[in-house]
């Protein structure tokens, strides 16, 4: 799990709607909402620079944050954010309130390990089918990445979700089939006899 939790200071938003949102953005703030955990949604405003920095740092959607509002601390997980299509600045963020037993659905990036111990070393090409996998997991135990070990995989092999050891409590959203994450394929020109012998 990404342990790099962080805090954001927020102020309550009295007025909602397009006019007040535009005014907030002019003042360097982003409108946001906190919902979930069987409580009423709270409309808040956050510092634009702080949020943008967090989004560009990576792992924004899989890292739990603490929002400080009127002296209270609320644990949240970002669920969605909107960027201005032209100017690429953050327009709005939705946060899900999380507690110890909250289950969340998040997309976790896939990392491939030990390419040098697989068919890739002898000229095979790693064909990545999924760069991320959507999983159900406890909000306080979101994996930073799903690591796929390629050791011993040969040209022509496929790597399925069943080949991957997922952390405890983490299950793929697609449960009805053993989907492919990647394949190791022969290069476009084929493999030379020498490379095939090495393999």
From TrEMBL:
Annotated Large ribosomal subunit protein bL25 L25 domain residues: 8-95
An MF annotation (GO) of this entry: structural constituent of ribosome
Family matches, as CDD domains: Ribosomal_L25_TL5_CTC
A Gene Ontology cellular-component term: cytosolic large ribosomal subunit
InterPro entries per the UniProt record, alphabetical: Rbsml_bL25/Gln-tRNA_synth_N (IPR020056), Ribosomal_bL25/Gln-tRNA_synth (IPR011035), Ribosomal_bL25_b-dom (IPR020057), Ribosomal_bL25_C (IPR037121), Ribosomal_bL25_long (IPR001021), Ribosomal_L25_dom (IPR029751), Ribosomal_uL5_bac-type (IPR020930)
One BP term from GO: translation
Keywords assigned by UniProt, alphabetized: Ribonucleoprotein, Ribosomal protein, RNA-binding, rRNA-binding
Residue stretches making up the Large ribosomal subunit protein bL25 beta domain: 103-187
Family: Belongs to the bacterial ribosomal protein bL25 family. CTC subfamily.
Listed HAMAP family: Ribosomal_bL25_CTC
Function: This is one of the proteins that binds to the 5S RNA in the ribosome where it forms part of the central protuberance.
Quaternary organization: Part of the 50S ribosomal subunit; part of the 5S rRNA/L5/L18/L25 subcomplex. Contacts the 5S rRNA. Binds to the 5S rRNA independently of L5 and L18.
Name assigned to this protein: Large ribosomal subunit protein bL25
């Amino acid at each position: 799990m990404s342990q790099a939790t962080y805090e954001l200071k927020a102020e309550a938003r009295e007025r909602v709607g397009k006019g007040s949102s535009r005014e907030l953005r002019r003042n360097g703030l982003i409108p946001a909402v906190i919902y979930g955990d069987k409580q009423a949604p709270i409309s808040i405003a956050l510092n634009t620079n702080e949020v943008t920095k967090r989004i560009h740092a990576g792992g924004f959607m899989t890292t739990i944050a603490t929002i400080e509002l009127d002296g209270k601390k609320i644990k949240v997980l970002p669920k969605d954010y909107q960027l201005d299509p032209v100017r690429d600045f953050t327009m709005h963020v939705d946060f899900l309130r999380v507690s110890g037993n909250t289950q969340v659905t998040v997309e976790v990036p896939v990392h491939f390990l030990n390419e040098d111990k697989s068919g890739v070393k002898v000229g095979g090409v790693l064909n990545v089918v999924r760069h991320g996998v959507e999983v159900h997991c406890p909000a306080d135990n979101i994996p930073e990445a799903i690591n796929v070990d390629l050791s011993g995989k040969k040209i022509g092999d496929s790597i399925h979700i069943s080949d991957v050891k997922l952390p405890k409590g983490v299950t793929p959203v697609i449960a009805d089939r053993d989907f492919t994450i990647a394949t190791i394929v022969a290069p476009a020109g084929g493999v030379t006899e020498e490379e095939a012998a090495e393999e």
